[in-house]
Amino acid sequence: MTSSIKISPSILSADFSKLGQEIISLDKAGADYIHVDVMDGHFVPNITIGPEVIKKLRPLTKKVFDVHLMISPVDKYIEAFSDAGADIITFHPEATENIDVTINLIKKHKKKVGISLKPKSSINLIKDYITKIDLILIMSVEPGFGGQKFMPEVIDKLKDIKKIISEKKIKLDLEIDGGINFKNSKIAKDAGANVLVSGSTIFNENSGDLKKNINLLRES
Ligand code: DX5
Ligand code: ZN
Fold first, then answer.
1. The domain 2-219: what is its CATH number?
2. Alpha carbon of 166 to ligand 1 centroid (Å)
3. H/E element, 35
4. Residue-level pLDDT at 1
5. Cβ–Cβ under 8 Å, residues 90 and 114
6. Domain ranges of the chain
């Protein structure tokens, strides 16, 4: 499946000293979504950015802000990320005591809901919620850092989820995140992913030619 593939560049690999300019460049280069990795040094061992930064970036583009929350507990920050301008808010099931409560909280703020599965997290964690959400994010690296190696073992999970959503005729984004490059992008797409997140490939390959790298990921 190579039609209607969306590319969601992760700004984790951007130059943080000129983040605004990087967002404008991604917009011009044809990104579909802007993937914002939020880390708290608790749920994952790294710390990145919070709602204040997102709020400042929001006026620079109309692209969808695809906000991946790697924070725990997550509920108390949903309002701040919604107000800051997130369009999709994705959380990890392990970061909340009640998945339904978190889903409803995100919906209350009229945002799209995503749930993310770490490489070792089972589909069973989210099976009951698939009809209530807009996006499933399959992590193909352990969350926490950009530039890690793609874990091919998650492909079977991606295929299993794709099968479930096809059987149930559910329309949602199936996103893969971590270590995506020009070699494995086709494997991910063939397994059912329609949104590819990429940080280091988009910002570092071909001397940082964002447009070329976005198109190569979309088409390869
Ligand atoms: C990892 C993040 C990813 C990742 C993407 O915790 O969720 O978005 O850093 O970057 P690359 O493409 O470099 O793996
Ligand atoms: Zn991410």
1. 3.20.20.70
2. 27
3. strand 33-39
4. 41
5. yes
6. 2-219
- Of the residues 40, 66, 173, 177, which is catalytic? 177
pLDDT given for residue 3 in this prediction: 52
Instruction: Answer for the pair 56, 83: CB distance below 8 angstroms, yes or no.
Output: no
Ligand 2 centre to CA of 36 (Å) is 7
**Number of residues that make up the chain:** 220
Task: Give Rg (Cα) of the chain.
Answer: 16
Instruction: Please work out, in degrees rounded to the nearest 5, the angle formed at the alpha carbon of residue 117 by the alpha carbons of 112 and 123.
Output: 105
C-alpha–C-alpha distance, residues 137 and 90, integer Å: 8
**Residue 119, Cα to own-chain centre: how many angstroms?**
14
**pLDDT, mean of each 10-residue run, the chain (220 residues):** 82 98 98 98 98 98 99 98 99 98 98 98 96 98 98 98 96 98 98 98 98 96
C-alpha to C-alpha distance for 117 and 102, rounded to whole angstroms: 15
Testing ligand 1's pocket by substitution, the residue of 36, 43, 67, 148 carrying the most ligand atoms inside 8 A of its CB is: 148
